[in-house]
Amino acid sequence: MSTKKEPSLFRSVWPYLAALVLVLAVQWAWTGTAKVEVIPYSRFQQALAAGQLHDVIVGPDTVTGAYAAPHDGYDRFVAYRVDTQLADTLGKYKVDFAADPGMGWLKEIAGWLVPLAIAGFFWFGLRRTTGGLAGAGQSHARVYVNRNTGVTFDQVAGVDEAKTELVEIIEFLRDPKAYGRLGAHIPKGVLLVGPPGTGKTLLAKAVAGEAKVPFFSISGSEFIELFVGVGAARVRDLFRQAKAQAPSIIFIDELDALGRARGAFAIDGNDEREQTLNQLLAEMDGFDSRDGVVILAATNRPEVLDAALLRAGRFDRQVLVDRPDRQGRIAILKVHVRQVTLDPDVDLDIVAAMTTGFSGADLATLVNEAALEATRRRGNSVGRADFTNAVERIVAGLEKKNRILTPFERRVVAHHEMGHALVSLALPATGKVHKVSIIPRGIGALGYTIQRPTEDRYLMTRQELEDKICILLGGRAAEKLIFGHISTGAADDLAKATDIARSMVLTYGMDEDIGAVVYEKQRPAFLDVPDIESAPYACSEATAARIDKAVTRRLDDAMARALGILEANRALLETCAGDLLKVETLDEDALKTLTAGLRASAPPAATPAAAGS
Fold this sequence. Notes:
By secondary structure, this protein is an alpha/beta fold. The chain has helices at 9-34, 41-49, 84-91, 105-130, 132-135, 146-149, 160-174, 176-179, 200-211, 230-244, 256-259, 271-285, 307-310, 326-336, 348-354, 360-376, 384-396, 407-426, 462-472, 474-483, 491-506, 541-568, 570-583, 588-594, and strands spanning 36-38, 53-58, 62-71, 74-80, 142-144, 189-193, 215-219, 248-253, 293-299, 317-320, 432-437, 448-452, 585-587. A six-stranded mixed β-sheet has the order 5-7-8-9-6-10, with helices on both faces. Strands 1-4-3-2 form a four-stranded mixed β-sheet. Strands 12-11-13 form a three-stranded antiparallel β-sheet.
């Protein structure tokens, strides 16, 4: 790639500024050496009548000439003309009169300099923002050949199914003719979909690295410009470059920025995006994949893409790049710890168990944070405790040991967190409690309880969801039981518990009184962003009231259940909270020792309103 820098604005303008200064300097020098006197027009008439002038030159606006003899040290004169009739009239009254010279030569210079300056600055600004009109339609794609991508399948782990889907793409790019000997042709487009940070871009680079072909990479937002038609021109230019270097790969990252459904989201739609999308559709129809050009694209918002992009003959194949399971996380950790010095006691299987739900990017950050932890303590290698602290830092935030709580606040936080922990330990189907701490972390957390799932889960039963709500309300239940009142510390717990209860009623049909009817549309598959959620289904006021009662009932039942568990283990709650106040942090082994006499809770009996699911 060329590293030539664009010339600065000063370097481009300085020749014109220098020429202007030179002209002004010459005019000033000529005016100073000629000894020209500016006189009123009445005085010119008097000197003319007295015979003191010669070589008079009459111009459109001025009268110039020379004195017959030097006058007050001046050899020449200039007078600005006055209308002849008006001059005769004024001359009768014996008064001095002169014309207003206006701006003079400055006015003439400004007449052509100001428009030139405006045009020049507009041209330079346009050049800096869009690269100039001549280059506005050129693609800004960054071209990578095999040696520049530096990525192979050995560096991509945890997405074995996606790699298998892309192997035949690599084989086709290596030898297009041999692959199509039976008449088959490779899909024109492959769409990589999945949550952020799961390695979609890395996987595309690995395909180019394995196939050893040119790799054209561009973001969907780079096609959208201020001027209508520029994006479409860039699409044409990109496909032209790719065809010239076939076999090659075109990779469009964040495809949703370009391929959002036409007619939808009209509030922020524009003609430029639609014209660019139309040109992309036309280009995908206008080339044959047997030419050796394959289009890869990535997005984490497939639900907003235009249906025309996903039809057969364009993006024929959609490959899911999801968050890795436990074995996938182990494989990803092995890739990232290659450059890290590990202690022999580090078990990556345990680290993978602690990181359920982490993406590939999260795991890369985890390894780096663990290495930084070891560096801060001046260790010779990265140990198990470093990984534990790194997980807590990513999940809960940075420790704030300087935040001073009052003794009463510390007691409330200690009982709150132990309420979460004891309720979780009393429910046999929930995950293990990894750590309980009253050290503030993050933005607003005064304490935290970390649970570690025993396995990856993809489905949850109604009982498990009810247990989860019960655990979330365990902190508030402990406050109410011990202190007789509640605090603001359970705000985040209440929000999460309410979301689960509403989903059980509105989405999962887990309330018999409401029935197996969906009253809320599904959220986006990979991005849980409230701003892009679909509107809920319409329902009557009576049904809305029943829904509210069902949600409230589920929360009340969970709160009563949590209170029952803590009342049965009140002495243990007091003991554990006291120990937590002393040491500030209890790990899994310490919790097992302290809660050896915990009374487990049996599942609640099914009530008519909540039976069956």
